[in-house]
Amino acid sequence: MNKRFFLIITGFLIVILLVFSYFADRRRIDEKSMVQSDQSNLNQGVSVVMKPVDDETGLIIGPGFNLVKTNCLGCHSGKLITQNRANREAWKATIRWMQQTQNLWDLGENEPKILDYLSKNYAPQQMGRRAPLQDVEWYDLQE
Ligand code: HEC
Predict the structure, then answer these.
(1) Which residues, in sequence order, are CB contacts of 63 under 8 Å at separation 6+?
(2) Which of 73, 101, 112, 116 lies 20 to 30 Å (CA to CA) from residue 66?
(3) Has residue 29 been placed in a domain?
(4) 99 Cβ partners below 8 Å, 6+ apart?
(5) 102-123 residue pLDDT tens
(6) 1 and 33, same domain (yes or no)
(7) 53 φ, ψ to 5°?
(8) pTM to 2 decimals?
(9) Could you identify the atom of ligand 1 that is nearest to the CA of residue 81?
């Protein structure tokens, strides 16, 4: 076997190896991010639909996301939002509370949009179990 032929074959093998390891790596990363989103889904309890989540803020991406990103993350992280669940009224009350005590500014015409976003994406969770039985008429077992 001449030397040149040997070098070409070795070079060829190295290239194949590099390409292969690149793709193997990418698959691992894909699998990892899939596992992560599965887990965050578990944390949300029973929700079945997977909503896309912004990596940087942890907030669900949807209409109003940018408004929340610009108005709500100056003083605390998005965690404070994602850890909370409330209906529209309660979200409004939280905003009022921050305005009265924490110097949150007037949100103006953005407020309804922000409330839409919050009450849609961070609504109270569905109960995991059925409600307890009520008004049951019990009867004595006959022998
Ligand atoms: C001017 C600063 C500021 C801005 C802007 C701000 N917050 Fe807050 N927020 C606070 C402070 C301070 C707290 C109390 C933090 C703590 O208890 O550690 C707080 C607490 C909260 C809490 C937790 C309330 C509770 O009952 O525990 C939520 C939820 C929240 N903010 C949501 C929001 C949302 C939604 C926005 C955007 C509309 C927003 N914040 C914008 C200052 C701000």
Answers:
(1) 113, 116, 117
(2) 101
(3) yes
(4) 105, 106
(5) 999 999 999 999 999 999 999 9
(6) yes
(7) -115, 135
(8) 0.66
(9) 29
Q: Give the whole-angstrom CA distance, residue 73 versus residue 58.
A: 11
Span 37-79, pLDDT tens digits: 444 545 555 555 678 999 999 999 999 999 999 999 999 999 9
**CA 74 / ligand 1 centre spacing (Å):** 9
Q: Which domain holds residue 10?
A: 1-45
CATH classification at residue 110 = 1.10.760.10
Nearest residue (CA) to ligand 1, atom 36 = 72
- For residues 101 and 69, state if they share a domain: yes
Number of domains in the chain: 2
Do 40 and 71 fall within a single domain?
Answer: no
69: tokens are 């990103």
Q: Which atom of ligand 1 is nearest to the CA of 95?
A: 38
Q: For residue 35, what are the CA distances in angstroms to 21, 29, 59, 66, 69?
A: 21, 10, 18, 26, 26
The answer as to whether 56 is a domain residue is no
User: Separation of 66 CA from ligand 1 center, angstroms?
Assistant: 17
Cα 34 from Cα 31, distance rounded (Å):
5
